[in-house]
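The data are quoted verbatim for completeness:
=====
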Amino acid sequence: MSVSVLFGGHTDVGKRRANNEDAYRTELLAAGVPQPSALLVLSDGVGGANAGEVASRIVVDGVCEMLANHVQAVPVSTDRRLVLEDTMRELDRRGRAASDAPGRAGMGATVSILWVEAGQAWWGQAGDSRIYRLRKGVLEQVSHDHSPVGRLKAQGKLTEEQARVHPLRNLIDQCLGGGGAPVEPEVGHFAAELGDVYLLCSDGLSDGLWDRDLAVGLRLVAAGKQTPEVAAMALVNQAKDASGKDNITAIVAQVAMDLDGPSEVARMGGIMRVWRGFFSGNQSPR
């Protein structure tokens, strides 16, 4: 089955911050080969001032560069989860080394990674940025918040409403870099399906909008009423209007039937990166 993965992102400093500590990149890895990869990476810096900006940029650039090098060296991997885990551990070490510079003590960053290739989706996570999947109209948080409040919510001990006002809601216990213990990243896999819509976002988006609001926005993409790029911008703007107390970033991706060519992409509006390839939705990891 010939499909396209269309994706786009948007970021905003919000209403209260002087600088944007969020960063994201969307990349095509090994473009022009039979099985290219769509790589989506989002990071939210911690540590304050310029340190957060530095940390998030180190993370998103490092992920893209390291995974691009891996794809060139090993076009077909037995399991991308192992590569993601090694990449995050290496960037954790780099972040700790960079924090020795003046004014950067303890700087770190969250990371959310989604890597779509040949009908498979691998993801990596550290911190409380999030990865969502809309499948057949149902929204699911794929990643897990690495925080005390996130675990209580995942265990059903807190509702979404209670989690938003919990006194420890801003505390995370995993990130790349930082002054704590070395990172223990989380990785996972699922089979990508035609019609899937994915969202990667910083906590500025998930704190500003309810999950039900995210679902409404992603359903517009699934129904063909918005492009991923337009949807990402719309969600960020909605979160800014609703809250705006933090930096806000979103990446939206859609698995769709292959398009006829660049002219059709242009007619859909928005600025999108497109991955085209072939996959069967019922494949298992190679």
Q: What stands out?
A: The two ends are 18 Å apart (CA to CA). Residues 261-286 have pLDDT under 50 and may be disordered. The CA atoms of residues 197 and 254 lie 4 Å apart. The longest helix spans residues 49-73.
